[in-house]
Fold Energy transducer TonB.
Amino acid sequence: MTAIYYDQLALSWHPESRSDSRFKLIVVVTIVISLLFAVTMSIIDVPEPDREAKAVVPERIANFILEKKEKPKPKVVKPKPKPKPKPIVKPKVKKLPKKKVDKKPLTKIQKKARDKAADSGLLALGNELADLMDTSDVSAMVGGKVKSSSSSATKATAVNKALLTADTSKGSGGVKSSKYATRIGSTKLSSQEITQVKQSLLSSGSLDKSKNASRKRKSRTGGVRAEEEITIVFDQNKSKLYSIYNRARRKNPSLKGKIVLAITIAPAGNVTKVKIISSELKDAKLEKRLLSRIKLFKFGAKKVEQVTVTYPIEFLPS
């Protein structure tokens, strides 16, 4: 029997020593084989590959190849002209001669109806709009002046004092009972007579007044418009004139004054001409607006002559 030493027994218990020795052996063997393979490969001569030379192309052939053949252009086919359509001959229409309509003269009723239609409806509105559109040459419209004056004829009825005081101038002639009694009776009769005279005078005065009024009416309605009619129309349209004035006062608060107008009124009642005689307003735009508004006034148709009236209007801030 062989004896086992301690070193051998200790190494047998460590398996790493065996694996390391194997690894080292394998590495050495592989390195040697690779070196041998590299040396042998470097020693062997490898022949160079044969390369084919490029073919040399002549110049004329090369030029011939470069020139490209032009493609033939496609022929443009012109479209055939379309046949023109034949004009359609329209049948001629013979114009019939217009029948002449004999215009019958208008009767008085038809004339009155035409005048009423002209003063009302769309015709009157068209005239008003035309007046509003053209109010530039108002200053040259009025040529003359017609002064209209109204004379107030008042007659004072004279009371006959001689009748009332007929018995007062007589003297008594002394105090006598008979005459005194008769005087009392005569005074009673004279008082009755006085009352009768007063009644007769009053009735005669009222008759004179009614005659004067009728004369005035006849003279007014004969050929001239009454001043009362003109003032009534201006009073009715006063608010419209003041609305125009108040609009102008918004720009000029110190605007005020009196304006005197000459207004020509036609028998139909419409205003034909308006002219400013004098004005304290000194505002041309306001005056033009007032003139255009006054031209729209309607005084009513009447059997009177055309009249020109001077009318003052005073504008004061309210």
